[in-house]
């Protein structure tokens, strides 16, 4: 199973992107491929979910681990496939999706393609209460190029050092205000975490 692919963003289309790494172009299906436009021809990190069927293997890509986790949780709902889960992520703000599930807002959920009243009810039934501590406040989609890659790598490093997601998310807003290397993001985050 892949966690992420990091490489040159060499192509994008209406349904996905191609990340070139080691002479191989990985076709990755994304919720909103055009959000990657600012990173075209730059080093890009994409979090991956590998979906395997008997007739196909598809890589789904996300800007943050949190988006990927929400996608996986949506897939766990009866009646939701990858296409529906991706449509929900493409059409909605992840924080709003979580709020809608937690507040049982059927109307919000039924506005997504392929999600009717029955499926919206099933999403709420299966996921309500399981997303309360879930946060999508990871890297902003407006972050581009080296800065967002460096921040992403720094957040991964903090996780490897044993910091919880909750602790890491507390320092993200402060880190986003700066443009640093991955190493300096880690140093700054450690300074913030030890002074908290």
Order of helices and strands: EEEEEHHHHHHHH
Relevant CATH superfamily of the largest domain: 5' to 3' exonuclease, C-terminal subdomain
CATH class category label of the largest domain = Mainly Alpha
Q: Which CATH architecture of the largest domain would you pick?
A: Orthogonal Bundle
Overall helicity:
40-55%
Oligomeric organization of the protein chains: single chain
Major sheet description: 5 strands, mixed, barrel
What's the CATH topology name of the largest domain?
DNA polymerase, domain 1
Uncertain stretches: 137-145
Helix tally equals 8
Calculate the terminal CA-CA distance, rounded to whole Å.
36 Å
Can you tell me about this structure?
The chain has 196 residues and is an alpha+beta fold. The protein folds into 3 domains: 4-62, Beta Barrel (OB fold (Dihydrolipoamide Acetyltransferase, E2P)), CATH 2.40.50; 65-127, DNA polymerase, domain 1 (Orthogonal Bundle); 145-195. It has 8 helices and 5 strands. It has a 5-stranded mixed β-barrel. Helix 1 crosses helix 2 (82-91), helix 6 (145-160) crosses helix 8 and helix 7 crosses helix 8. It is globular and about 50 Å long. Residues 137-145 have low confidence and may be disordered.
């Amino acid at each position: 199973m892949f966690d992420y692919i990091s490489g040159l963003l060499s192509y994008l289309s209406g349904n996905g992107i191609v990340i070139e790494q080691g002479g191989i172009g990985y076709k990755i299906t994304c919720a909103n491929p055009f959000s990657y436009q600012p990173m075209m021809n730059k080093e890009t990190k994409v979090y991956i979910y590998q979906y395997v069927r008997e007739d196909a293997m598809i890589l789904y890509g996300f800007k943050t681990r949190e988006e990927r986790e929400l996608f996986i949780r949506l897939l766990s709902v009866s009646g939701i496939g990858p296409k529906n889960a991706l449509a929900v992520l493409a059409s909605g703000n992840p924080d709003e999706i979580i709020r809608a599930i937690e507040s049982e807002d059927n109307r919000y959920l039924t506005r997504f393609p392929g999600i009717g009243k029955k499926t919206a009810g099933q999403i709420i039934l299966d996921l309500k209460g399981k997303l309360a501590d879930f946060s999508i406040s990871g890297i902003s989609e407006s972050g581009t190029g080296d800065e967002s890659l460096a921040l992403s790598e720094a957040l991964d490093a903090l996780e490897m050092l044993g910091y919880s997601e909750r602790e890491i998310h507390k320092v993200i807003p402060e880190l986003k205000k700066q443009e640093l290397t991955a190493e300096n993001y880690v140093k700054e985050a450690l300074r913030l975490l030890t002074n908290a």
